[in-house]
Amino acid sequence: MKKLLAIALALVMIFAVAACGGTDTPAPAPAPEPVAEAPTPEEPPAVGQDATAPSAPDDEGHELVLITDIGTIDDRSFNQGSWEGLAQYAQEFGKSFNYIQPAEQGDDAYLNAIDLAVQGGAKVIVTPGFLFEVPIHTAQAMYPNVHFILIDGVPHDGGYAPDIAPNTVGVTYAEEQAGFLAGYAAVYAGYTELGFMGGMAVPAVVRFGHGFVQGAEVAGEELGLGDGSITLNYHYTDVFWPLPEINTMASAWYNDGIDCIFVAGGGIVFSVIPAAEQVADKYIIGVDVDQSGLSNTIITSAMKKLSVSVYDKIADFYNGTWPGGQHVVYSAVNDGVGLPMDTSSLGGFGQAEYDALFAKLVSGAIVVDDRHDISVEDLPLTIVSLNNLG
User: Fold this and answer.
1) Which domain-ending residue is among 124, 157, 173?
2) For 137, which of 156, 213, 264, 389 is 20 to 30 Å away at the CA?
């Protein structure tokens, strides 16, 4: 009990609530009232800020638990998409569920959160984000009877060599394909002054950016545009949360002529939205989930089908088809990435054009370079002219 209370003081655990939806799965129904006092998703603690910890899990326990990397599950991005998939399955099949929000980042904090979930009776633990790769490598050996779904990564011991135990599945996505669709659609819709603003230059974000550039290049070729006729500012912010300097940079880009910025960095979109809204006819492409509800300036989003993949893997566990020890990639082939065409505003790039382009990714007629260990400048570009690299 003392151990549980000590762990609980370092964590913020918030019980299931209704999340605002993306378009890849229906929004889950409201969850039961929480049994512990804690900040609600509508009023989350600030990033990196401790909040009053609730008591340890109740005696009933929770079968399905999601652990964030200190972010909230209503971030309109990565955590939310994963949470929606878990909550949907739990509510459809009557499974108890909650999530744990650590008060700080770090392997020890994540392992403490995992231990708290296990002590509360978790059968399946979902961890969104590459920051969990090393902690899950440790946890999968510590808790062989608990099943782990690692989203956007594969377990390793710090040396990046995949080591996936039978009670774990690693899920990643073909971000380069999602980025490609967004870049192609933007140019096809008439935007030739573009920007890419990524968060940290981790593999997933790099693939988003490289795909975006390649999509713009291919669209330019097919439309017969001349060499250098597409300008594309390219920059990594080195964070995944909003900062004043990001807003300043986005405003400068828009004022200098950039018409549309692909923002692939979680919370940094909240710094770019005000910049886009302050200047007429300036737009944003969102990421991870359908972010159109955040602002009228968001014309589409390069989506990972996060909720679908989480839902599928939980279903695999309960159906006896658990893909333990495997690295599963969600791509166009298994409908794991895409654009939310129902909410997109892309001018002449409509459903028919999207379907035709998507089919080429599925068939392999178009192959997008997925390397994350090269510079964007190493991509073969003639129509796209890169600027503001950093």
Assistant:
1) 173
2) 264
